[in-house]
């Protein structure tokens, strides 16, 4: 580091043959160098890198006692190592050598000799000024972890994995597909030997699976890479297969699966089920389930009903299985099929395409079908009976759901019901024309048969108190008493005769107590109770029924279908109107004084708040008024003796997750907690309470619940797609929603008969087919049911695995050009235009046609055209040659000739048969009578101009050998579409910090001399990810990479540059700025000393801390400020 | 922003109907077309391939005039349109040529700084005005009319400035929105022979035969085009083609602006219909005679 005048620098200028000497006056540069400070000797030589050139340096160091050396020649990437070694031979530390590049930076980029020479002088001066400030350093030696990561399980990855593992070293083989084998597994035959691809590949695949030193991580992707050669830490995301290793590959699940999606292994030419195995020889050979996001209908359902699952089964006509699935989650399936407010339909993805599916109606159909066909499964029995007594207060949907769930868990709960009938709001609130009583009773009966006892006429607070229950030995209590108290409007005249409350009115009618209604009935409110009351009033003889609602139709909370039905039946609805006074005559109602409203700002519910319009009061004549504005629970009986906490809305206070009240062992849910809510929300609470009680009784913590709750869904729009194989919602073909038929209007007005008649089998199946199968697997559970080894688990989760390796090989393969990009060749427009990979599957004996070469209509083709260079050697797409197309096209020609009588035309630009045995293969194909036409195809069209002549295709091209334009009629066209980098090659590039060439393939360290290494030490590339190549070349490159990797493993350690940073303790102020900036967390603050310190083992020498340090305390070895400033000064001629 | 209208020589002679209908459509849509003052010949493709630099001066002069007036040039003739675009591209890529061209323009006190875009009226109508806006102005639906939209070779090739160079669809979308039925027409970007009709009629007649035959076989009521040269080639030689190839073709060849004008309620005269050699039939006029 000294600037001692005694430092002796030797400067050596290389001619590089003519490369440098032609443009740079090397003699002038040498003379210039010899006059510089500290320079003891300056020489020029024809080739400094040659042995005599190096000898020159060694001799000078020894004889003249040089202690610094500068060589001005080519790039340090090329020969820095050479000259460092020469210095070390002469016992000069390699870091006292500096290289100056006067070839790439001077002679090759300048035309004028004077300019090039001046620049060379400046570069030499910079190097001299720098080198005198350089200090000797010792290289850092690190151990090499003998484990290797190979990314990509195609033929290259397989080959390298086997070669490395055969040496007894560990290999992790990560493959993102479900099986290894890569593209080669899709091929039928391989050129030029025509041996069967599977026959030579599958033994290797099996060896990988059986090799004790190879850990195969299929269906996995790299998430993160940290570290450097010898010591990488890699995070791998192992995606859930949903099928465990217990799978025996019997294939029963495939028969049971109702879902079909395109089979990508078959290039989407045929379909496969959601549970599948890529191909029969797949490794690993277990099945897997293709599952994306769970369907929104299921996620939004408060009880997690697998709606998409039973819909898929209905679409296939498998109604019994559908019923079984519905019953698995739903304790009241008939009820839900009729009166559920179906949040699933509001979230149904189909709404972005046209209308949501009629999910509720499909469910109703399935349950009605079950009833009609007496297909009811037996009452489920719990495996183990449990003795603990549990009381449920209230037999509404929440109480019944709780009883059902407890019975499934082995308990025999008792439900206490205040009224003379069981069912709660289901029977007291919902009119019979929507939910027939025999249906409801059958549902309740089913739950009773499961072991639930219902005691009616038992009112809490009147007939018994909670203390009684505990003293009778009940261990836990679930309160689900509902919200039955109608709220008043708080306006004058509410107590007049003829003013009734909607819930009371409906309850009385439903309990068989006829209610006198007048001729002109008004109903106040906009919810389902209001609409139910209005329609019921009509059936009780009212002539005119008017609903008064203070907002507009858009805000009306009642179900749309119910509102429409009410209007059909003659109910009038007045919007934006609110009563301010009930007018009376002789104590009886004679009318209502109303005021007009308008919508103001949105309130807390998000709906726009209605605001009265000044001076808009008007009177309407009515003789009956039904108030149905809202309800609240009655909880007074719970507050006296039992201090249950009550909210200001008169609801019980509970922990929303566990439903515990403030009293141990007492739980509550449904409307008494939620306020007037929905049947399905009440049921969700009931199920959750049952689980909470079960946990409570088993002394388990009340956490990790499995009973579902409605989930909030991410926002979607019409540009989203239901899964990766489907078009976006907006491109989905429109199919209207199926409507249910209804009984006649006449009958509707007179009786309480059920209005909707349900869907027919055909209608239900048609409606179910509208389902878009969001997320592919819809969890219908049929595979689980048929799987004998019990290998399927839909709840499996993705895992992150961390592995430590010393070196990494990337063999991530290639993609092919989307042929649709070349619209002139008719791909996607004409039936019989195929890509090469599609054709590989057609000719494969296991492919879509079992190897028969036929047209889409089943006929054998008369002539087939094979077009080379589709997107290759084409400036508009890829300028490079894809290298394999000529040969596989000839292979196709042979297979076609072998199996059909078709004429074959090959359209080529240049026939590239460059490998061993390739030219001979080409000759053989010519002898077989294949027509080869030299010329790039202009376009593929239909032979006739009208659609009528569909079928025969015309290939138009110029035959450049005979200089003629030609039109060749064919039945089938095969496009040899270009090989291109994987679409996510950029992500891999960033993950592993490597480079790509302009064509997008990974860049090798040297195109000729180091084609398998990358510029990042320890990371190698093999196969088509480096550039298009055939199987023999891929295998050769993989073997070469394996050899490179094994070399370092066997050496066991590796030298790395000692360019770590260090912090001068004298200068460090302890500001800690560098601590967070360091990307390798190599800098820690020492509390004792009050300064930051670099951990040299972790530091990678990136220099971030050096640039950031405000006190210039952080410095990097070999890149010290002093050295760099001197170099700059030299460059600027200082 | 106003559009600087550059009719070119064809629209003042053989394609007068294109001129009339284009002006009518733009006026009806409230888009002002201001004619480029003192415009000159575009040089066309032939000149460009023999004397490139001089032809660039021709074309650049028009662009320089437009730059001085301020605004984009709207050129209905495909040839003018292509040449203007090509000039922009060449001058942008080659600053030496640009300097030479400006040297010539200097004598007239002009200079060109690449600020003018050359637009085709189809591009302006579909992308600036918008198909929905046009459809909402339409008074006469094209329902029942079988249309063969023919783009020719120049308006989208080679660059494909506003549409796919191999499979353009702007006209298809426009007429579909107006109620028309676009027939299967795979020859939509085929060559019409261009000037070969005067030098090598054998070749040009065959090319035109294919286009006409394709339209007829797919039951088109008319071919709709964007280019004066295509229009005249397809329109003027139908008898000759029928005789030579022993087929029967008799099909009206309209400029797209003519059909657009009709659907927007113009009179046949306003749509320039009198000048087509194969007269537009009753089906196209929809009882407006």
Short description:
The complex is a heterodimer of chains A (1134) and B (289). Chain A has 1134 residues and is of the alpha/beta class. The chains are: A alpha/beta (1134), B alpha/beta (289).
Relevant terms:
heterodimer, A: alpha/beta, five-stranded parallel β-sheet, B: 289 residues, alpha/beta, four-stranded parallel β-sheet, 8 strands, 49% helix, 9% strand, globular
Descriptive report:
- The complex is a heterodimer of chains A (1134) and B (289).
- Chain A has 1134 residues and is of the alpha/beta class.
- Helices cover 30% and strands 21% of the residues of chain A.
- In chain A, the strands form 16 sheets. Chain A has a 5-stranded parallel sheet with strand order 10-7-6-34-45, with helices on one face. Chain A has a 5-stranded parallel sheet with strand order 19-18-17-20-32. A 5-stranded parallel sheet of chain A has the order 22-30-23-24-25.
- In chain A, helix 11 crosses helix 15 and helix 16 (397-408) runs parallel beside helix 25.
- The longest helix of chain A has 21 residues, at 1031-1051.
- The model of chain A has no long low-confidence stretch (mean pLDDT 92).
- Chain B has 289 residues and is an alpha/beta fold.
- Chain B is built from 13 helices and 8 strands.
- Chain B has helices at 16-28, 44-50, 52-69, 78-93, 95-106, 121-137, 170-177, 196-199, 201-217, 228-236, 238-245, 256-263, 282-285; strands spanning 3-5, 33-35, 72-74, 118-119, 146-150, 181-182, 222-225, 253-255.
- In chain B, the strands form 2 sheets. In chain B, strands 2-1-3-4 form a 4-stranded parallel sheet.
- In chain B, strand 1 (3-5), helix 1 and strand 2 (33-35) form a beta-alpha-beta unit.
- In chain B, helix 1 (16-28) crosses helix 12 (256-263), helix 2 (44-50) packs across helix 3 and helix 6 (121-137) packs parallel to helix 7 (170-177).
- The longest helix of chain B has 18 residues, at 52-69.
- Chain B is globular, with a radius of gyration of 19 Å.
- Chain B starts with a strand and ends with a helix.
- The interface between A and B is small, with 9 and 11 residues.
């Amino acid at each position: 580091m000294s600037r001692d005048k005694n430092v002796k620098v030797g400067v050596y200028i290389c001619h590089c043959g003519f490369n440098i000497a032609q443009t740079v006056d090397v003699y002038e540069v040498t003379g210039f160098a010899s006059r510089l400070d500290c320079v003891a000797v300056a020489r020029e030589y024809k080739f400094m890198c040659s042995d005599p050139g190096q000898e020159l340096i060694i001799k000078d160091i020894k004889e003249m006692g040089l202690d610094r050396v500068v060589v001005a020649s080519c790039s340090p990437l090329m020969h820095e190592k050479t000259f460092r070694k020469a210095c070390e031979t002469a016992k000069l530390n390699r870091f006292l050598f500096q290289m100056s590049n006067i070839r790439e930076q001077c002679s090759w980029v300048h035309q004028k000799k004077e300019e090039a020479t001046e620049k060379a002088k400046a570069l030499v001066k910079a190097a001299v000024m720098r080198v005198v400030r350089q200090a000797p350093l010792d290289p850092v030696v690190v151990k090499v972890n003998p484990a290797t990561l190979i990314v990509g399980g195609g033929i290259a990855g397989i080959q390298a994995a086997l070669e490395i593992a055969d040496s007894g070293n560990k290999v992790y083989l990560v493959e993102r597909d479900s099986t290894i084998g890569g593209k080669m597994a899709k091929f039928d035959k391989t050129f030029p030997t025509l041996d069967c691809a599977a026959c030579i590949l599958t033994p290797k695949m099996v060896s990988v699976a059986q090799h004790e030193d190879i850990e195969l991580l299929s269906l996995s992707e790299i998430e993160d890479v940290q570290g450097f050669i010898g010591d990488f830490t890699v995070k791998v995301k192992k995606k859930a297969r949903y099928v465990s290793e217990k799978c025996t590959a019997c294939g029963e699940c495939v028969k049971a699966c109702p879902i079909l999606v395109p089979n990508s292994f078959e290039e989407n030419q045929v379909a496969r089920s959601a549970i599948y195995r890529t191909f029969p020889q797949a490794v690993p050979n277990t099945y897997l389930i293709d599952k994306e996001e769970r369907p929104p209908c299921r996620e939004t359902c408060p009880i997690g009903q697998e709606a998409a699952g039973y819909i898929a089964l209905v679409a296939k006509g498998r109604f019994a299985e559908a019923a079984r699935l519905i019953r698995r989650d739903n304790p009241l399936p008939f009820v839900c099929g009729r009166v559920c407010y179906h949040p699933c339909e509001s979230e149904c993805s189909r709404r972005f395409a046209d209308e949501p599916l009629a999910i509720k109606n499909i469910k109703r159909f399935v349950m009605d079908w079950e009833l009609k066909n007496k297909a009811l499964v037996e009452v489920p029995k719990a495996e183990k009976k449990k003795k603990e007594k549990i009381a449920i207060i209230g037999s509404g949907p929440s109480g019944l759901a709780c009883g059902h769930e407890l019975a499934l868990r082995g308990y025999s709960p008792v439900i206490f019901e205040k009224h003379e009938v069981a069912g709660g709001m289901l029977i007291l609130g919902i009119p019979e024309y929507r939910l027939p009583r025999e249906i409801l009773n059958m549902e309740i009966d089913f739950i009773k048969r499961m072991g639930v006892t219902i005691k009616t006429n038992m009112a809490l607070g009147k007939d018994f108190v909670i203390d009684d229950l505990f003293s009778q030995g009940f261990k836990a209590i679930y309160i689900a008493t509902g919200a039955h108290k109608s709220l008043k409007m708080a306006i004058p005249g509410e107590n007049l005769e003829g003013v009734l409350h909607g819930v009371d009115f409906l309850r009385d009618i439903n309990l068989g107590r006829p209610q006198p209604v007048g001729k002109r009935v008004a109903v106040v409110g906009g919810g389902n109770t209001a609409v139910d009351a209005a329609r019921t009033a009509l059936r009780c003889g009212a002539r005119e029924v008017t609903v008064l609602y203070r907002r507009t139709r858009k805000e009306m909370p009642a179900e749309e279908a119910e509102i429409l039905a009410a209007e059909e039946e003659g109910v009038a609805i007045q919007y934006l109107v609110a009563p301010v006074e009930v007018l009376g005559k002789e104590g009886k109602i004679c009318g209502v004084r109303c005021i007009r409203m308008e919508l103001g700002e949105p309130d807390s519910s998000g709906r726009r708040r209605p605001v009265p319009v000044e001076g808009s009061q008007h009177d309407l004549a009515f003789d009956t008024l039904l108030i149905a504005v809202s309800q609240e629970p009655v909880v007074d009986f719970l507050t006296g003796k039992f201090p249950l906490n009550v909210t200001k809305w008169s609801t019980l206070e509970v922990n929303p997750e566990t439903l515990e009240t403030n009293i141990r062992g007492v739980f509550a849910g449904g409307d008494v907690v939620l306020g007037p809510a929905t049947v399905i929300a009440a049921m969700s609470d009931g199920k959750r309470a049952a689980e909470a009680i079960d946990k409570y009784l088993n002394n388990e913590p009340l956490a990790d619940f499995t009973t579902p709750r409605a989930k909030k869904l991410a926002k979607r729009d019409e540009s989203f797609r239901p899964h990766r194989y489907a078009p976006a919602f907006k491109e989905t073909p429109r199919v209207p929603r199926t409507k249910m038929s209804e009984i006649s209007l006449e009958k509707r007005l007179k009786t309480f008969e059920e209005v909707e008649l349900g869907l027919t089998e055909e209608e239900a199946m048609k409606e179910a087919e509208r389902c878009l199968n969001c997320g592919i697997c819809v969890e219908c559970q049929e595979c689980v049911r048929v799987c004998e080894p019990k290998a399927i688990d839909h709840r499996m989760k993705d895992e992150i695995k961390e592995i430590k390796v010393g070196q990494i090989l990337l063999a991530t393969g290639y993609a092919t050009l989307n042929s649709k990009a070349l619209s002139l060749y008719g791909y996607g427009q004409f039936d019989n235009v195929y890509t090469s990979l599609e054709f590989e599957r057609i000719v494969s004996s296991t492919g879509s046609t079992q190897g028969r070469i036929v047209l889409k209509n089943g006929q054998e083709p008369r002539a087939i055209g094979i077009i080379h260079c589709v997107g290759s050697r084409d400036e508009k797409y890829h300028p490079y040659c894809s290298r394999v197309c000529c040969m596989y096209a000839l292979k196709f020609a042979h297979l076609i000739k072998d199996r059909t009588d078709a004429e074959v035309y090959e359209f080529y630009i240049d026939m590239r048969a460059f490998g061993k045995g390739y030219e001979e293969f080409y000759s053989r194909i010519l002898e077989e009578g294949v027509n080869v036409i030299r010329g790039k195809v202009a376009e593929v069209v239909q032979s006739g101009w009208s659609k009528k002549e569909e079928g025969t295709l015309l290939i138009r091209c110029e035959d450049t050998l005979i200089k003629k334009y030609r039109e060749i009629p064919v039945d089938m066209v095969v496009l040899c579409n270009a090989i291109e980098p994987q679409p996510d090659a950029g992500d891999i590039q960033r993950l592993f910090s490597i480079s790509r060439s302009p064509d997008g393939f990974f860049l090798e360290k040297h195109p000729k001399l180091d084609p398998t290494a990358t510029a990042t030490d320890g990371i190698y590339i093999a196969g088509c990810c480096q550039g298009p190549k055939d199987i023999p070349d891929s295998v050769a490159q993989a073997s070469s990479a394996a050899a490179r990797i094994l070399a370092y493993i066997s050496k066991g350690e590796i030298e790395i540059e000692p360019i770590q940073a260090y912090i001068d303790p004298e200068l460090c102020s302890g500001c800690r700025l560098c601590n967070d900036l360091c990307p390798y967390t190599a800098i820690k603050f020492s509390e004792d000393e009050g300064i930051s310190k670099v951990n040299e083992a972790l530091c990678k020498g990136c220099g971030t801390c050096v640039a950031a340090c405000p006190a210039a305390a952080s410095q990097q070895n070999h890149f010290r400020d002093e050295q760099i400033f001197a170099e700059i000064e030299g460059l600027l001629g200082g | 922003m106003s559009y600087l209208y550059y009719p070119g020589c064809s629209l003042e002679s053989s394609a007068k109907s294109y001129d009339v209908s284009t002006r009518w459509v733009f006026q009806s849509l409230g888009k002002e077309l201001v004619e480029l003052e003192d415009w000159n010949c575009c040089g066309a493709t032939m000149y460009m391939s023999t004397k490139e630099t001089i032809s660039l001066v021709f074309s650049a002069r028009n662009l320089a005039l437009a730059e001085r007036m301020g605004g984009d040039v709207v050129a209905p003739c495909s040839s003018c349109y292509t040449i203007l675009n090509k000039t922009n591209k060449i001058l942008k890529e080659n600053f030496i040529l640009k300097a030479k061209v400006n040297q010539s323009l200097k004598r007239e006190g002009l200079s060109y700084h690449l600020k003018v875009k050359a637009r085709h009226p189809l591009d302006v109508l579909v992308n600036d005005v918008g198909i929905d806006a046009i459809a909402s102005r339409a008074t006469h639906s094209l329902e029942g009319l079988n249309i063969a939209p023919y783009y020719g070779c120049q308006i989208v090739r080679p660059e494909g400035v506003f549409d796919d160079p191999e499979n353009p669809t702007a006209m298809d979308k426009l007429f579909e929105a107006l109620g028309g039925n676009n027939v299967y027409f795979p020859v939509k970007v085929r060559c019409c022979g261009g000037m070969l009709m005067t030098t090598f009629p054998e070749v040009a007649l065959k090319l035109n035969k294919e286009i006409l035959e394709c339209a007829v076989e797919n039951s088109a009521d008319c071919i709709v085009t964007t280019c004066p040269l295509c229009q005249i080639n397809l329109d003027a030689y139908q008898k000759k083609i029928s005789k030579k190839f022993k087929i029967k073709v008799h099909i009206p060849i309209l400029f797209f602006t003519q059909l657009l004008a009709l659907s927007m309620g113009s009179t046949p005269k306003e749509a320039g219909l009198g000048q087509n050699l194969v007269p537009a039939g009753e089906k196209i006029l929809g009882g407006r005679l």
